[in-house]
Design goal:
Number of domains: 1
Number of strands: 0
Helix content: over 70%
Structural class: mainly alpha
Strand content: under 5%
Distance between the termini: 79 Å
Order of helices and strands: HHHH
Number of helices: 4
């Protein structure tokens, strides 16, 4: 029974790692396809397009890291020696730090993007309303 569990867990961990590899491959391909038009710009698009590609790729890499971590946990559950648990702890720390900095970069990028969106200036002129419209509105209120 234990041998069957170990074999099943080995296949499951391998499948999860394969899913992580597929996620990375598809994300990289998507980023490449998105980047090609930026290599031949008709006008200066700025860094907005590149930033969007980086954000999307970063999000997918974060997902792939979570899959890899799940596979590592399954492998550790099969053979829980102190050596393997120590290796898992090191992997968890490294992937958590990597994930943290990816999320931090995504948050900073989203914050920069929010700050760059145009906002109506304070001295903008409001649309003019005719006197008749204003009087009609005042009577209806």
């Amino acid at each position: 029974m234990l041998a069957l569990f170990k074999e099943f867990t080995t296949y499951l961990a391998g499948g999860i790692e394969t899913a992580a590899a597929l996620i990375i491959a598809v994300a990289a391909l998507e980023a490449l396809i998105g980047a090609v038009p930026l290599w031949f710009p008709r006008s200066d698009p700025g860094d907005e397009g590149k930033e969007a590609i980086r954000l999307r790729l970063g999000r997918w890499l974060t997902v792939a890291i979570e899959f890899e971590l799940a596979a590592d946990i399954l492998r550790t559950a099969m053979a829980p020696t102190w050596n393997i648990i120590g290796q898992l702890a090191a992997i968890v720390v490294l992937r958590t730090v990597l994930n943290y900095f990816l999320q931090l970069e995504i948050a900073r990028s989203l914050q920069r993007r929010a700050l760059q969106t145009p906002v109506a200036p304070e001295n903008a002129v409001a649309p003019r309303i005719s006197r008749q419209s204003a009087q009609g509105f005042a009577k209806s209120v």
